[in-house]
């Protein structure tokens, strides 16, 4: 996928063309999506595919759930609008060392378009109408977002800008956003 995508539909088509999308119909939002995602991650395929769950029981047609959007170097590059890459070196090249080389795209305000097709406000807002997965039986609620990051600072010199105080240290972070109540 070398051209930029206009919306999620085009992004999905591009990722599918790369062979990095798995579509699954009929999985239940309560525990099945989580189990399937975990099993696919353990299959050993690298990178694990992005997973698009569709035809979710109890939800209208077209209410889908997508997992693993940035789970590979290629998908991350596509998401960021970068050219076709197959190596993590893009994150350690000149742009990573000098972020000022990046050319941000300014936001554009619009008055029409697909984003205005589904608007709810006030008492009409109901997050439970979406197939928000309940991933694991001991979770505190349905999982809106889950992100894990692992960073290594090895190879950097002490005192360099952006370096952490402990040379060679590894850091991890975990974000888990649950819907409760």
Could you explain how this protein is built, in words?
The structure is a single chain. By secondary structure, this protein is an alpha+beta fold. It has helices at residues 8-17, 32-42, 73-79, 94-97; strands at residues 21-25, 50-54, 65-67, 142-152, 170-179. The chain has two domains: 1-105, no CATH class; 139-181, no CATH class. It has four helices and five strands; from the N terminus they run αβαββααββ. A three-stranded mixed sheet has the order 1-2-3, covered by helices on one side. A two-stranded antiparallel ribbon has the order 4-5. It is globular and about 45 Å long. 14% of the residues are buried.
- Number of H- or I-type helical stretches: 4
Estimate the global geometry from the Cα principal axes: globular
- Widest beta sheet: strand line-up: 1-2-3
Percent strand: 15-25%
How much is the radius of gyration in Å? 19 Å
**SSE string, helix = H, strand = E?**
HEHEEHHEE
Give the biggest beta sheet. 3 strands, mixed
How many strand units? 5
The total domain count is 2
Distance between the termini: 41 Å
Unreliable sequence segments: 148-171
Fraction of residues in helix: 10-25%
Mean pLDDT: 74
Class per helix and strand makeup: alpha+beta
């Amino acid at each position: 996928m070398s051209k930029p995508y206009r919306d999620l539909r085009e992004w999905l088509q591009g990722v599918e063309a790369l062979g990095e999308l798995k579509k699954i119909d009929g999985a239940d939002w309560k525990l099945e999506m989580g189990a399937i995602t975990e099993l696919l991650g353990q299959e050993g395929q690298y990178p694990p595919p992005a997973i698009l769950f569709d035809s979710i029981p109890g939800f209208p047609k077209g209410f889908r759930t997508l997992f693993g959007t940035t789970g590979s170097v290629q998908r991350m590059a596509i998401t960021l609008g970068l050219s076709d890459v197959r190596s993590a070196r893009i994150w350690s090249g000149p742009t990573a060392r000098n972020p000022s080389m990046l050319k941000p795209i300014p936001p554009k305000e619009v008055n029409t378009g697909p984003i205005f097709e589904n608007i709810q406000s006030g008492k009409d807002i109901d997050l439970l109408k979406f197939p928000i997965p309940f991933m694991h039986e001991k979770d505190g609620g349905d999982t809106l977002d889950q992100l894990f990051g692992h960073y290594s600072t090895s190879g950097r010199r002490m005192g360099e800008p952006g370096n952490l105080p402990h040379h060679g240290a590894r850091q991890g972070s975990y974000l888990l956003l649950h819907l409760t109540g």
